Amino acid sequence: MIYSSELIKGTLKTIVLKLLADNKKMYGYEITQKVKELTFDRIQITEGALYPTLHALESDGLVTTETEFIGKRVRKYYSLSPSGKDKTKERVNELADFMETMKFLLDIKPKNA
Amino acid sequence: MYSLSEQQIDFILDDIRARGVEMESLQQNLLDHICCIIENDLEENGDFEGFYRETIRTFYKDALWEIEEETLQLLIFKNYYTMKKTMIVSGTFSAAAMSLGIFFKFMHWPGASALIILGIAVSSLLFLPLLFTLKAKEKQHTKDKIILAIATVAGSLVSMSILFKIMHWPGANLMGSIFLMLMLLLYIPLYFFSGIKHPDSKANTIVSTIIMIMGCGLILTLVNTRPYIQDNANEITNQALQESYLSMSEQTRLLSNTACMALPPAGESCSLICNSTCDRIEALKLKLINASEDRQVKTVNYNELGKLDNFQQPTHELFHNSDEKPSPGEELQNLRHDLEKINTMLGQKLNASVNLIDLSDKKNLRTGTQESWEMHTFYNTPLTNVLRNLTQLQINIRFVQILAQPKSLPVMAAAEPVKE
After folding, report:
1. Domain hosting residue B378, numbered range
2. Considering only CB atoms, which chain B residues are within 8 Å of A32?
3. Do B59 and A47 touch (CB under 8 A)?
4. CA-to-CA distance for B116 and B101, rounded, in angstroms?
5. Is residue B338 part of a domain?
6. What is the domain count for chain B?
């Protein structure tokens, strides 16, 4: 099962921030692969969603970038800025809280209960 | 594992650019991303171009530039609150500066123009464009956005036009006319017909349309009547100056006739110098008038006589062209020489204790310094005044000339100014 892009869109910033918090520095392709790997292909981040998000995070000052030349092309590595680190905790907590609320709202019973 | 050649990388980058992605950092990101996919997923001897086309196709729905648009949208949204704040601050500021400027203008306090220019510039260059950007984001249809854009341009035009009008800069009427055309031919019809369709906004649309048409009428009056009043004022001033000049010329002619008729043989040298000086002055006047022909005296704006521009023509003709220390030219030197001669010759004859024609230094009322007679009478003086001063000199010479004639007093009584 692949989740709808609508669901992913609202959580993409949080996903990217958390990945950067766990992996120090990453580039775009690496992020998509990592998400695929961790979710057993159930979440696939599209390029059309990832890069706008990365640019927005950069302009918010939450991530910093460094470039590396790979032959003729440039690879842009993203890593968290100090304010990004705080923001990550905040966003992850917020999302966890949100999921609890959704469970309650949609009346989802835990599977093993 | 496929290994990409430099040409292939250039090919991909060119293709990304050709598909409308303009942000360089986004181009680099997409290039690296595609290269990674190709390197990881394409077999060593696979079909590069076919694989590339398939891959890039998965990046977007309709076109690759959607990614850039999405990026820009996110970036602009981030600035949304800053923009909104700037808009409100700049709007308040320009409204305050404008009202304060208009108040200052009424009170004739300094700084009025600066305030008005600042207010209008901020409003038409910062406030209105920001308002447009923010409002355009809220509108869904292209038609609404176009209406909004027209309104923004019209707003900028009308405020700039009013600014140019009160500063007497050229182009105000042109901008005002373009504004009126935009409003009457485009904006109001578009606004009216799009608003009248919805029952909710029908009443509002009708009222706003009427108010806008009334406003346009007022601006039309402003655009059209001002130049008429100005032309009229010029005409009246011109006429008054011309009449006074004509009457002075007539006086000169009469005096000159009288002087010639009463010419006794004894006074010949005196009369000769007087006549030649008057001729010299007449020639100078003609020269000045001729020189001004191609400078379009008719377009001289009498409201702006206080500005130096209109003063420069006689100065240019009569003085040596040097900004630091202007000195009288040859013609003025000759004139002074003649006048001094008249002073000595006729002064002796009349036993005058003061100079008959006053050539002494005068105090400049503006700067408070002493300046020579030439400077005082002709330098930085409008052409009409210079001509008037020259004619006055002719009258004075003729007057002195008649005084020097025996039994001149009864003749003088006849030399009244003539009216047609």
Report:
1. 252-414
2. 33
3. yes
4. 5
5. yes
6. 3
Does one domain contain both B86 and B159?
yes
Q: Are residues B35 and B162 in the same domain?
A: no
Query: Under an 8 A CB cutoff, do A48 and B71 touch?
Result: no
State pTM to two decimals: 0.45
Split chain B (420 residues) into runs of 10 and give each run's mean pLDDT. Answer: 87 91 88 91 88 89 87 77 87 93 88 88 88 79 82 88 81 87 88 83 88 88 60 61 72 70 59 85 82 55 46 74 71 88 83 80 79 82 79 84 64 47
Domain annotation covers residue B66: no
Q: Both B370 and B409 in a single domain?
A: yes
Q: How far apart are CA B66 and CA B70, in angstroms?
A: 6
> What domains sit in chain A, N to C, each tagged with a CATH number?
5-106 (1.10.10.10)
Distance in angstroms (rounded) separating the CA atoms of residues B123 and B98: 9
- Contact by Cβ (8 Å): A72, A24: no
Give the C-alpha separation, B288 to B319, whole Å: 12
Q: Note the pLDDT tens digit of each residue in B87-145.
A: 999 999 999 999 999 899 888 888 888 898 899 889 888 898 888 888 887 776 777 78
Asked if A73 reaches chain B (Cβ–Cβ under 8 Å), the answer is: yes
A55 CB neighbours in chain B (<8 A) are 23, 25-26, 71, 74-75
ipTM: 0.89
Assess if residue B303 is contained within a domain: yes
The alpha-carbon gap from B53 to the nearest alpha carbon of chain A, in Å, equals 15
Size of chain B in residues: 420
Residue B72 lies in a domain: no
Closest by CA position to B129, among listed B153, B165, B108: B153
Please tell me which of the candidates B23, B28, B67 has its beta carbon nearest to residue A48. Answer: B67
Closest CA of chain A from B60, distance in Å: 6
B138-185 residue pLDDT tens: 776 777 788 888 888 888 888 888 888 877 788 888 888 898 888 889
B181 and B305 in a single domain? The answer is no
Distance of CA B110 to the CA centre of its chain: 20
